[in-house]
Specification:
Layout lengths: L5 H31 L1 H5 L5 H32 L2 H19 L5 H4 L2 H29 L7 H9 L1 H19 L2 H6 L4 H17 L6 H8 L7 H8 L1 H10 L1 H21 L4 H29 L1 H23 L4 H28 L6 H31 L3 H19 L23
Length: 438
């Protein structure tokens, strides 16, 4: 495949990066608001712990919706193209995020307030379910041979930027607004600001062209009639293994950024500003590490780095919570940095690894479904389990053990997958290869 011109690649990189940055900004501000204010705004009749659990429950709804979005956007992304689905997913999630900022509180709308919140969260999750897979395909299907890890780093940087931007806004609002005003209306501003980001992202994405890999398949009329069915028939093993391999990434990230945030501010009594600054520093390190590990995966291999990341999580699980419970800002930051660095080691290679595992005929579906189902388990269910374990036992040992178990599972599943960095990306591994055999 001929490499795209430098100006074209700059546009592609920007389109894939800004989309995931916006999408994850939307998703993360919801997680932050769920941990900090939603319990009081939408579940005021609940106890403190029950309110946090209910808030995180609405957060989990977005993960449940992700596979729905992955199936819908994956189907049409494999049938008619990556570009149109990227624009649509951006609009779906962006508009629903703005709407969250307009939902009246429980005192105004009663029970319909949390119901409306859940509905919008579900729509938001559908949008993200189609976003990540399309963004990484846009980058990797344009990449020249030997540089798919590097090119896949563009959308993989989106989460770090989105998280940093969201946290900065919450820090600013926390600094300038009295607690009562922040709780009343200040938390809504990051959601409403998403409208500006949405307009910028839409303008950039509408100008990109279809990927050459998919365009070639389109010209030859090689699209699958029902991509999901063909995926399940021809590569069920690799779909299961890839999904289980990356549950750990979601679990680790949301344990650090959502569960630890909630535990530190509500149970340990650490000032909210201190925790947000610590997370901001850790997310910045995560962004740099994601880029480095994505690039290194072109040299060292996707599987080797992913397996090493799983081992690092097993090693860091208990120190993470030990450092958190000291309440010391420096040690707290060290714990977060270590946790998100481990995440970056797994997340960096994943942008190229998942697409490379599937044939082009159903690649959007395969990568999106694996990523989204992993998100349901790791990002939606694990924080709820962790919160319940912490509340019922008063100990972080069971929470750390959850990460250890997921680390071992990820390590074993990654080893069962093939190395993909050198295979022909114009088709994929498909049936008859190590990944395709049942």
């Amino acid at each position: 495949m001929t490499a795209p011109a430098r100006t074209d690649m700059s546009r592609i990189a920007t389109a894939s990066f800004i989309g995931t940055a916006i999408e994850f900004y939307d998703f993360y501000i919801y997680g932050t608001a769920a941990a900090l204010v939603f319990g009081k705004v939408f579940f005021p009749t609940f106890s403190s712990t029950a309110g946090v659990l209910a808030s995180l429950g609405t957060f989990a709804v977005g993960f449940v919706a992700r596979p729905v979005g992955a199936i819908l956007f994956g189907h049409w992304g494999d049938r008619i193209g990556r570009k149109s689905m990227l624009v649509t997913s951006l609009l779906v999630m962006g508009l629903s995020t703005v709407a969250v900022g307009l939902v009246p509180d429980y005192g105004t709308l009663g029970i319909w307030s949390p119901i409306l919140l859940v509905v919008l969260r579900f729509v938001q999750g559908i949008g993200l379910g189609g976003e990540w897979g399309g963004a990484v395909l846009m980058s990797t299907e344009y990449a020249p041979p030997g540089k798919r890890g590097l090119y896949s780093a563009f959308p993989q940087l989106g989460p770090a930027i989105g998280f940093v931007l969201g946290n900065l806004l919450f820090l600013l609002l926390d600094a300038v607004l009295p607690p009562a005003e922040f709780l009343s209306w200040g938390w809504r501003l990051p959601f409403l600001f998403s409208a500006v980001l949405l307009a910028v992202g839409f303008y950039i994405r509408i100008k990109i062209a279809e990927t050459p890999v998919f365009q070639a398949a389109l010209d030859k009329a090689e699209q699958a009639k029902v991509p999901l069915f063909e995926l399940l028939r021809k590569q069920p093993r690799v779909l299961v293994l890839s999904t289980l391999s990356f549950v750990l990434a979601h679990a680790l990230f949301y344990t650090v950024t959502t569960f630890c945030l909630s535990m530190a501010t509500t149970t340990l009594g650490i000032p909210r500003t201190t925790v947000l600054i610590s997370l901001l520093i850790a997310a910045t390190v995560m962004g740099v590490a994601t880029l480095v590990f994505a690039m290194k995966s072109d040299r060292w291999g996707r599987r080797r780095l992913s397996a090493a990341a799983a081992v690092s999580v097993v090693v860091w699980a208990f120190p993470l919570f030990a450092l958190l419970q000291t309440g010391n800002p420096v040690l707290l930051t060290l714990g977060f940095v270590g946790g998100l660095a481990c995440f970056a080691m797994l997340y960096g290679p994943m942008g190229a690894f998942l697409p490379e595992l599937f044939r082009v005929r159903y690649r959007y579906s395969g990568a999106s479904i694996a990523y989204s189902v992993a998100g349901v388990i790791g990002g939606g269910i694990v924080p709820l389990i962790s919160t319940d374990l912490w509340a019922s036992t008063g100990s972080t040992v069971p929470v750390a053990l959850v990460l250890v178990v997921l680390g071992v599972l990820s390590f074993l599943c990654v080893l069962a997958l093939p190395e993909t960095r050198d295979h022909d990306f114009s088709d994929g591994l498909g049936e008859g290869t190590a990944a395709g055999r049942p």
